[in-house]
Amino acid sequence: MQTAFDYDITIIGSGAAGLTLALTLPTHFRITLLSKGNLSTGSSYYAQGGIAAVLNDCEDDNEKHIHDTLVAGSGLCHCDTVQHIIKHGKQAIEWLINQGVPFTRNNTQHNTYPYHLTQEGGHSARRIIHAADATGRAISDTLINKVKNAPNIKVLEHHVAVDLITRKATDSPSQCLGVYALNTVTGNVITLKSGYTVLATGGASKAYLFTSNADGASGDGIAMAWRAGCRVANMEFNQFHPTCLYHPNAKSFLISEAVRGEGGKLLRPDGTRFMPEYDHRAELAPRDIVARAIDHEMKRLGADCLYLDISHQSAEFILSHFPTIYQRCLGYGIDITQQPIPVVPAAHYTCGGIVVDLEGRTDIQHLYSIGESTCTGLHGANRLASNSLLECLVSAQTAARAIETSFKQRDTCSAIIPDWDDSQVIDADENVVIAHNWDELRRFMWDYVGIVRTTKRLHRAAHRISLLQSEIDEFYSNFRITGDLIELRNLALVSELIIRCALERKESRGLHYTLDYPFTSDKAKDTVLAPGTVLPL
Ligand code: FAD
Ligand code: SIN
């Protein structure tokens, strides 16, 4: 059986970033696109609210969007990145419209823009284009259909990338030659040799017990890049979405910020509003502020959840704007046209990630990264709502141009890459170890590295992560790999990076709030970690 393959470009990840890149690269490239599940696995498919971009020039402009992004990012955004992404927003949306994405049309707003624009926290204008409350599904379905019909793109579903293959010649930077990937259906590990490799593997919010993310958000790309020698930055800024559905049977279901954008009010169990006491923007303050306010109220009142009420809107409005949320809540016996929705905050988005330049280049030659796996500087210390899909699209299109240009000038590599060797390992006899460690990790990350931190809690987490990692390493060296083991190993590494970054930041800024350093220092500085320079925890 053939286990080695050769492509021009290997894209790991079929979310908004990976799909856009695959479809934007010139069609003469032989591309392979990997997904650890089917092509709709990942956060993109579940995106609800929409994509932020300046589309209605009569009522909005790029400067306002840039300003809102910088305010949300609490002084840590990189201005060149913010300008680049926002300036190319309209073009990216037009590309999606041309691909056939069925965005919601504007029937009600009194302006000339043909699509409905909604509002979310931290935005000073209505600028979120959306497909009702299932924007991600509309984008994914459209782009997946195109990818499946593209003759130059080979799709490999149910393939989990395990590690990057790199070489280092004396006096020259490391170069990426491809990746090893586990076929989770057959159990075989294949070798994918490629001219360029792109990590579009999404975020790491599965490190937390409560999350809006689907299974699979285990930070694999960030972990692989770190092991291969790339710098990683700002991992302490894990965004907690203020409103996930609270119900014993509801797993990871988000209640879109657009519900607040359309007038939804946050309530205590006694029905009183509290957000105006925390911020003059009330329910439309940036996410870090709203999530912390909810956390504080829940702890103060000893409440299991708070409530989000949109019932002031007509049933017709709710059903047309939030059909998915309406149906899902109704399935749990909550009629959102009549009743408030029980909500809690949950881990939602990884603002930090692999350090890349504006074109997606990492520290390793021929290795790029795009989307949530990266730290481009767009989000700073707190991402503005709906700026993530925007970043995925613009970064993918920018990287496509850069890869096309540099592909012509690249050194071709004739190195023989050894196949994956699992002759020294056996099948694991106690998979309960994986399940146990997975649960333990996610619980202590939630308790000790969550919305409000202290140095003592971070040290507790650091101690536990070291113990877990030594157990996981032992397991990894002795037993045949599985999808679960790969994810657990990556999740443990990414959690270590989150803890390290959090311990380095001796201030509170954006999403990182610590009781030991409650103030924001005058000078904003990224937390950048480089492999080989960190001390044991
Ligand atoms: P993802 O869409 O997460 O895709 C990652 C891909 O990588 C998947 O295909 C996965 O299979 C693959 N992968 C990962 N590891 C491996 C591996 N080891 N081997 C092979 N494949 C691998 N943002 C907005 O801007 N607007 C919104 O309205 C919005 N709503 C959201 C709602 C929810 C519920 C969630 C969870 C997020 C939301 N976000 C939103 C955030 C946004 O959806 C994500 O940041 C964005 O979709 C990330 O896209 P991506 O392409 O980088 O990664
Ligand atoms: C939401 O719909 O609230 C999610 C938007 C985002 O994460 O940007």
Describe it.
The chain is 35% helix and 17% strand. With 537 residues, it is α/β, with parallel strands linked by helices. It folds into three domains: 292 residues, FAD/NAD(P)-binding domain (3-Layer(bba) Sandwich), CATH 3.50.50.60; 108 residues, Succinate dehydrogenase/fumarate reductase flavoprotein, catalytic domain (Flavocytochrome C3, Chain A, domain 1), CATH 3.90.700.10; 98 residues, Fumarate reductase/succinate dehydrogenase flavoprotein-like, C-terminal domain (Methane Monooxygenase Hydroxylase, Chain G, domain 1), CATH 1.20.58.100. Strands 1, 2, 6, 7, 8, 9 and 16 form a seven-stranded mixed sheet that branches. Strands 17-15-10-18 form a four-stranded mixed sheet, with helices on one face. The two termini are 43 Å apart. The model has no long low-confidence stretch (mean pLDDT 95). The structure holds flavin-adenine dinucleotide and succinic acid. The site of succinic acid has 8 residues, from helix 7.
